[in-house]
Specification:
There is one protein chain. The chain is α/β, with parallel strands linked by helices. It folds into 2 domains: 155 residues, Rossmann fold (3-Layer(aba) Sandwich); 69 residues, no CATH class. It is 49% helix and 10% strand. The protein has 11 helices and 5 strands. It has a 5-stranded parallel sheet with strand order 2-1-3-4-5, with helices on both faces. β1, α1 and β2 form a beta-alpha-beta unit.
Length: 242
C-alpha cells in the first residue's frame, strides 16, 4: 500500500459546535509524521466504490466519531448562533427574510423583492447563506455557545469506520464511545484529542505487526456480531417482542 495515512472528508460547519474531524485531518496534513506518505484532504470525496478502492491503497487512516457533541430537541442553540453570525454579516439577514414575518399582501411583495435581491447577489458571485455560515469563526462560536460540555451528545460510529475495517485499514481515532462497538487499542489506535500521545501512537503505527493485530481484531469483532445481517436480526427480534 503506497499511502501510509490517507483519507477524504467533508468539513463540518462551525454551527455544529464540533471541529474535531477538521482538527485531526489538519494536524496530520499540515505536519506529516517524518518518513510517512500522508494524503489527507478535506473537500473532495469519492464515490462508494472509489472510496473502498482508495482505502485499499492506505496502510492507515484517521477519523473521529460522526456528528457533534450538542444534541437538542429543538434548534435553540444553533438558532442563537445563526442570529449571532447574521448580526455580523448583514447579507445573511436577507437570506432569512422570508422566515421572519407572517405573510400579508405587502409582506409577500417585499419577500419576493428580497428573494430577487439575494438571487442577484448569488448570481454575481456572492456566497450563499450556507457558504457564509460555513465561514463563521468557530473560535468565537465555541466561546459563546459551545464552551461547556452538553448534557446530550450526538456523536456516533459511522460507515467510514466500518469501511476502514472492511478494507483492513488501520484506524487512528480520537477518544469516543463509537456506540460501544470499537474498543481503543484493541480495534484502533487511540489518539488523545490534544495530540499529547502522538509520538507513542505513531511508534505503534509504524510497527507492521501492530497494524496487522489491530485490523485483524477489528475485522473479526465486526464479522462476529456487527454486520448488517446482525442488525436486521436484532431489529426483527426486538419487534417480535414488542
Amino acid at each position: 500500500r503506497p499511502i501510509d495515512l490517507g483519507g477524504r472528508s467533508a468539513s463540518y460547519a462551525p454551527l455544529l459546535g464540533d471541529m474535531d474531524r477538521y482538527r485531526i485531518y489538519r494536524r496530520f496534513a499540515d505536519d506529516p509524521p517524518p518518513g510517512l506518505v500522508v494524503d489527507l484532504q478535506i473537500g473532495r470525496r469519492f464515490s462508494g466504490e472509489e472510496w473502498a478502492e482508495y482505502l485499499g491503497t492506505c496502510r492507515g487512516t484517521v477519523a473521529t466519531e460522526a456528528g457533534g457533541s450538542f444534541l437538542e430537541r429543538d434548534d435553540r442553540l444553533v438558532n442563537a448562533a445563526v442570529d449571532y453570525v447574521s448580526r455580523r454579516h448583514p447579507t445573511l439577514w436577507l437570506f432569512g427574510f422570508e422566515k421572519r414575518f407572517r405573510p400579508s399582501f405587502w409582506q409577500r411583495r417585499t419577500t419576493t423583492l428580497m428573494q430577487g435581491l439575494t438571487a442577484q447577489l448569488i448570481a454575481r458571485g456572492h456566497p450563499g447563506r450556507d457558504a457564509l455560515l460555513a465561514r463563521a469563526d468557530f473560535a468565537q462560536l465555541k466561546q459563546r455557545f459551545f464552551h461547556t460540555p452538553h448534557e446530550h451528545s450526538g456523536k456516533a460510529i459511522s460507515s467510514r469506520h466500518f469501511d476502514a475495517i472492511g478494507t483492513r485499514t488501520c484506524q487512528i481515532l480520537f477518544p469516543g464511545r463509537y456506540n460501544d462497538i470499537l474498543r481503543p487499542n484493541e480495534h484502533y489506535l487511540e489518539l488523545a484529542s490534544d495530540f499529547s500521545n502522538l509520538d507513542e501512537v505513531m511508534e505503534r503505527f509504524r510497527d507492521p505487526a501492530e497494524r496487522v493485530r489491530l485490523v485483524e481484531a477489528a475485522e473479526a469483532h465486526v464479522r462476529d456480531g456487527h454486520t448488517l445481517a446482525h442488525r436486521v436480526e436484532t431489529t426483527l427480534a426486538e419487534l417480535g417482542r414488542a
